[in-house]
């Protein structure tokens, strides 16, 4: 939980992992040793190994092997046939996230036109395995999830207010903290429905998302839900899945405007040459997300 600017062990772990990723990616040709990386981080090799056992569950050597471009190309070759079959069967708007279902509900045209008049949006900042996350939700589900480098929420609130200028915004730090823990811990699934709606915290319930976007953007976001953890897709294959004749560029624009990071897994879309490409919440964070998923996927 966040109190002022105090950093939790989870946040400190991620920041060190991100720093290690930066070093590895900028010295990949040298294949730096565990000792070299540890020295860069100002840690002993023992404590660096311990850090990775907490964050990744595997050794640094195995983890950093996953981040190579060649590994991404192998993952692409394995993923595309399965994804093409899933996309070919039609986009239902429901996808798999670990062992959970994710369902997308589009905001009603009237809600968008009114700026969210009558909507109550609860927001907060919480810790996650990938840094601070800003989460906002209505009674119909999560409407925004962003990764931040600090505990400050001004940027997230500004974007939330831009989307829903007439909505009532309420800070709910404890509630958002519990939701965040559930999102990033598959053993504690979150239904997306507030406790007052009668959702069972112990049962596996769909994670409900309420998105605001054009018909084309929502179609792309639904296609992203078909990409399971441990799989990758290219912008070109995604364009083909949604029948977009304009190609990868317009699909990339829709991917970049995804308002709900992680749950709508835009980080699993990479360039056809095997490079991870850009990410709205930071290229190093995207690499951390992919590396962890490809290792366990």
**Into which percent range does the helicity of residues fall?**
40-55%
| Secondary-structure-derived class | alpha/beta
CATH fold-level topology of the largest domain: Arc Repressor Mutant, subunit A
- CATH superfamily caption of the largest domain: Winged helix-like DNA-binding domain superfamily/Winged helix DNA-binding domain
What portion of the residues fall into strands of 2 or more residues?
15-25%
Biggest β-sheet, characterized?
A: 4 strands, mixed
Q: Which word captures the global form?
A: globular
Strand and helix order: HHHHHEEHEEEHEHEHEHHEH
Strand order of the largest sheet: 5-4-3-6
Average pLDDT taken over every residue:
81
Taking the alpha carbons of the first and last residues, their distance comes to 28 Å
Low-confidence stretches: 92-100, 187-204
Number of domains: 3
Instruction: Please identify the top-level CATH class of the largest domain.
Output: Mainly Alpha
Protein architecture, described:
The protein has 297 residues and is an alpha/beta fold. The protein has 3 domains: 9-66, Arc Repressor Mutant, subunit A (Orthogonal Bundle); 69-107 and 213-282, Orthogonal Bundle (Arc Repressor Mutant, subunit A); 110-204, Methylated DNA-protein cysteine methyltransferase domain (Double Stranded RNA Binding Domain, 2-Layer Sandwich). Helices cover 44% and strands 15% of the residues. It contains 12 helices and 9 strands. It has helices spanning 9-26, 34-41, 45-55, 60-66, 69-88, 109-113, 154-163, 173-183, 215-224, 235-241, 248-256, 283-296; strands spanning 94-97, 100-106, 120-126, 132-138, 141-148, 168-171, 207-211, 233-234, 269-270. A 4-stranded mixed sheet has the order 5-4-3-6. A 3-stranded mixed sheet has the order 1-2-7, covered by helices on one side. A two-stranded parallel ribbon has the order 8-9. Strand 4 (132-138) and strand 5 (141-148) form a beta hairpin. The radius of gyration is 19 Å and the shape is globular. Residues 92-100 and 187-204 have low confidence and may be disordered.
């Amino acid at each position: 939980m966040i109190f002022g600017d105090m950093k939790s062990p989870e946040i400190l772990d991620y920041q060190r992992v991100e720093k290690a990723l930066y070093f590895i990616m900028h010295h990949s040709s040298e294949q730096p040793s565990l000792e070299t990386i540890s020295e860069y981080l100002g840690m002993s090799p023992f404590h660096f190994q311990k850090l990775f056992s907490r964050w990744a569950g595997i050794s640094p050597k195995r983890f950093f092997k996953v981040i190579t471009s060649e590994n991404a190309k192998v993952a692409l070759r394995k993923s595309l046939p399965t994804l093409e079959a899933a996309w070919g069967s039609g986009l239902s708007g429901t996808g798999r996230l670990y062992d959970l279902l994710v369902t997308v509900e589009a905001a009603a045209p009237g809600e968008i036109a009114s700026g969210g008049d009558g909507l109550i949006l609860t927001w907060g900042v919480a810790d996650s395995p990938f840094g601070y996350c800003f989460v906002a939700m209505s009674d119909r589900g999560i409407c925004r999830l962003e990764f931040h480098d600090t505990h400050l929420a001004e940027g997230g609130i500004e974007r939330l207010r831009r989307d829903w200028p007439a909505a009532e915004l309420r800070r709910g730090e404890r509630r958002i903290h519990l939701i965040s823990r559930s999102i990033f811990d598959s053993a504690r699934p979150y239904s997306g429905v507030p406790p007052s709606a009668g959702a069972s915290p112990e049962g596996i319930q769909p994670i409900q998302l309420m998105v605001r976007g054009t018909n084309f953007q929502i179609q792309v976001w639904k296609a992203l839900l078909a990409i399971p953890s441990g799989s990758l897709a290219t912008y070109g294959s995604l364009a083909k899945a949604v029948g977009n004749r304009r190609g990868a560029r317009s699909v990339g624009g829709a991917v970049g405007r995804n308002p709900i990071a992680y749950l709508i897994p835009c980080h699993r879309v990479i360039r056809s040459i095997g490079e991870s490409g850009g990410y709205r919440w930071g290229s190093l964070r995207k690499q951390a997300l992919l590396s962890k998923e490809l290792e366990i996927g």
